[in-house]
Amino acid sequence: MKKSFQLLLRAALMASTLFAITACAQDTHTSSQFQGPKANKGHVTHSTRDGKSVLTLSDDFVVPDTPDPHWQVVDSDGNVYLLDKLKKKAFIGDKYQKEIVLPVYVKNVSKVVIWCAWAEANLGEASFSSPVQ
Questions:
Q1: Residue spans of beta strands (DSSP E) within the chain
Q2: pTM for this structure?
Q3: Are 19 and 39 found together in one domain?
Q4: Is the same domain home to 21 and 65?
Q5: Model pLDDT for residues 81-120, shown as the tens digit of each residue
Q6: How many structural domains comprise the chain?
Q7: Boundaries of domain holding 16
């Protein structure tokens, strides 16, 4: 009886773990590849972590060599949100802000733009097949 209870408990634990992994995988969305004059490698992944929307640049993304590249997102209504810098003084060398938590006022994201705030220019953009929340 004790062994059958342990077996049942293990099966339930495995099933709940599988369910949790599947639920997490369903909250991940990948954009198209960046297209633009300076940002044209890599893509963005949207995920939900602790109830917050997170955007993450892929490992093959290359930060444009421009004075002031920023994260910028566009929602499904065409509203544009200029967010944080990719390069900050705290990052030394070629390090950059690879991930950003979206503010709560951004209701969804249709595309991510790498924006040069100094030149006010679109350096490259990547779109999601449908808006992500």
A1: 29-30, 44-49, 52-57, 69-74, 80-85, 99-101, 109-116, 121-132
A2: 0.76
A3: no
A4: no
A5: 999 999 876 555 667 889 999 999 999 999 999 999 999 9
A6: 2
A7: 1-27
